[in-house]
Amino acid sequence: MQLTFLGAAQTVTGSRFLLEMGNRKVLVDCGLFQGIRELRRRNWAAFPVPPAEIDAVVLTHAHIDHSGYLPLLVKNGFTGKVYCSAATRDLCAILLPDSGYLQEEEAKLANRYGYSKHKPAEPLYTREDAEKCLPQFRPLEFGKRYRVGNDFGISLIPAGHILGASFVEIRCNGKTVLFSGDLGRPNDPIMRSPSRIQHADYLVLESTYGDRLHETRDPLDHLAEIIKSTAAKGGTLIIPAFAVGRAQHMLYLLYQLKKAARIPSLPVFLDSPMAKNATDIFCRYSQLHRLDAALSQKVCEVATYVNSREESKAIDALESAKIIISASGMLEGGRVLHHVRAFAPDPKNTIAFTGYQAAGTRGAEIIAGKKSIQIFGEAIPVNAHVEVLSNMSAHADYSEILQWLSHFKNPPHRVFITHGEPSASESLRQKIEEKLRWHAVVPTYGQVEKL
Fold first, then answer.
1. For the whole model, what pTM was predicted?
2. CA 361 to chain centre
């Protein structure tokens, strides 16, 4: 076997791993690069392997940095099947068309305001392109072994993190390669703990938080303080949230705070059609998380769902204190940009980040203290109070990763540290070698490994 790292190598986004077994090629994850311009340019470059030569794609989960390149792969010649869990399939059915739509809208705005160097600006792919790739999805059940042809087998194992997230286990010629995707946390309030794994010959392991520990502060207490402080000033709380996972987590926290009467009775708006649809799927798959069907429904009823553009504009015009949850979580697109443009200049308002902010994103710039950000070609002052709910991450920190690794009965031959900034990946590599005495490496983009 041969493994090539086509993404998520010394960076968090663009997860793509090509596993070759004889004349068979399987791509594990097919994500978009996000963040700095140098990374985003890779989305526009020719795929390193002709898509028509790839036999199958296997997705760990639905987040765009793991699935968002699929429409382009199909557009450029991939005709094979896309294997994933049923929940991942259903989430991709809303995430991918939305991604195409947002890219079309971004291109329209760039052409209208003239802030793109390309004349005219074009979307990477369209909503129609995304919809065309969906018939190639084939859902697999967790815990079952599937033989693909006569060459290799696939198993999906629950990974926590978000709805439908999987460890991908591929077997060929008596060897096992395990891809962690994004490793969930053992004590997540909503998602179940990641499954314990006892064996893999080779492990491809994420390291998003490989150099840090999550805060022990209860996010419920922190969020209550933020809401009360913002409401006392008559301000608006903007919560950029990933439409899948984090938006539902926020609704759960708000449900708890409202039920306990710990916060003022402010209106809550979920302004993301994609997040609304993802929340419906969340309720439908209650067997995959800790909340039963009845509680899931109550959580979903906490917010007023905003559907049209007109409704979205109308909530910006409301002068009273309120809470707006909107995507995208890193401020790289979506309706949240319009809300940030409206509320960031006023110090009575608050922007609360709830997840990882990749280098080069607007979210990372704001957290770093930048006092002005570019939105639709316009410099928007950031005078609003900025908060980071750092204990809400759906990614395991380094202690939780080491705890998960401790269940292996024997060390893998090699551990490949991926899906992290260089410092995080190197820090986790050192910890694994020092504490477990395992052989771990941090691959570079394009690196090829013989297994």
1. 0.90
2. 14
